[in-house]
Amino acid sequence: MASGLNNLTIAEASAKLRAREITATNLTRDCLDRIAAAEPKLHAFITVCEKEALDQARAADTRLAAGNAPALCGIPLGIKDIYATKGVRTTCASRILENFVPPFDATVIERLRAEGAVFVGKTNLDEFAMGSSTENSAFGPTLNPHDTERVSGGSSGGSAAAVAAHECLGSLGTDTGGSIREPASFCGVVGIKPTYSRVSRYGVIAYASSLDQVGPFTKSVRDAAILLQTLAGKDVCDSTCSARPVPDYELALTGDVKGLRIGVPREFFVEGMQPEVEKSVRSALKNYESLGASTVEISLPHTGYAIAAYYLVATAEASANLARYDGIRYGLRANAEDNIALYETTRAQGFGAEVKRRIMLGTFALSAGYYDAYYLKGQKVRTLIRNDFERAFEKCDLIVTPVAPATAFKIGEKMNDPLTMYLSDIFTISVNLAGLPGMAMPCGHDSNNLPIGMQLIAPPFAEETILRAGDAFERTGAFKSRSPVV
Amino acid sequence: MAGTKITLEQVRHVARLARLELSPQDEDRLRADMDEMLAYVDKLNELDTSNVAPTTQVGEAGTPMRDDVVTNQPAAAAMLANAPLRDRDYFKVPKIIE
Fold it and tell me: Does this model's pTM top 0.90?
């Protein structure tokens, strides 16, 4: 790999930018050069914003020259194509929004813009964030930078691959059932899903509103803390967004985990998981013990029901959220004689197979005669899953698990079997159902050199515990990420 | 709900509710997919939830309040810019009332 500025972390680049050792323009150029070289093999981006990015970089350089620029000033980022970006096409990887240009910025985009961040482009995803491999994108899959015959994970596969391949220094994803953590794990980068309500979702295209959360992908835990600092906090445009003060996340990175009680759920080390995944996570746990943390076996007895509950709750919410795509005010419109036919043909032409499958299941789960047996049952089991975590956190401060039962799978391997695809989220989904923060970070490689990720889960609003523990593991140097082959 | 088998009629009914036009191939595939998913979620019936309250809110309780003050400006042109079909400042749709 060339030694371009694009290989820097956010923390490194930010220090060099502010010391005027490098310019935002050169940093952005290196990212754009890398994008030009890697994209034919990866397809991490749906839209590359070369001109806009260079304009933003020049503006950042002016600000940096004046002094006192914010931490993210001049930092090139990739943005999942699910965030409304003013004047830049936002497709959600769907034909129905193929030509949609939002008239406004999502709140988190506005915040990043105010800091002087540079947006190099909009990254690929599973259509409407529905998927675990990015193969459901209407514009084709994103391939894994560690092995281009394999998936990047999903739904935020483009954002994960772009950071892993150094096409940008960090990126934004969204996570409804694992859509940040699973691709982070598959691509060997850090990805955090904050507590439900920690970050505003205004301007983020909704999939399942009681589960969706915004979060960053980065090359290090420190970078995750830096990005989360700007993303988190109250927003009057999102009434679900918490007004709690945002702590200084970088201050949490003390390197000290002495006395930390780490819970290890027995239900997360299951029969049939890839042995190397278990071995890597167990070895990370040993590492924590040597740093002065203690480990305790815990039980999350309803784990095996999480996927079933999720696919009722998430699809029901999706069926309501996606009702807005009717061909009237924006997006694709099919030709039809009357209004009902217009809706039906527009949606038939605009949505892909997986989106239709989830709308159908969700509509069914909410329909007369089936609501109690399906949707309500799902919400009740969700309560049991939340209670499991509440009880577990009486015994520990942090839970550590694998992110996924196996490393990145081959392109096409699970496309014909939706249920098998859904099962790849078995370790991440319950965290969304309970509204908890969870982070994926690299902790090993399998014999094919594919990254293995571990998941750190904390009680609501305890992102600091996750970041502190993740950073402490990184500092031991026990595991060093390999460079991607692309 | 154990042993539920989705019929083609049910698939068509749900598709109408969801405003989705389905081809005969779509209907067959979705019937099979829904059958498989519903058989899978049947495992939830192993759990007695008769005394469990459903989750209705995940974030913090309560609704935030703010003053009822207009903060945005009229932006008809921006709103209409993405219209698939328009007539002056209106979204154009097929005739609804005869």
Answer: yes
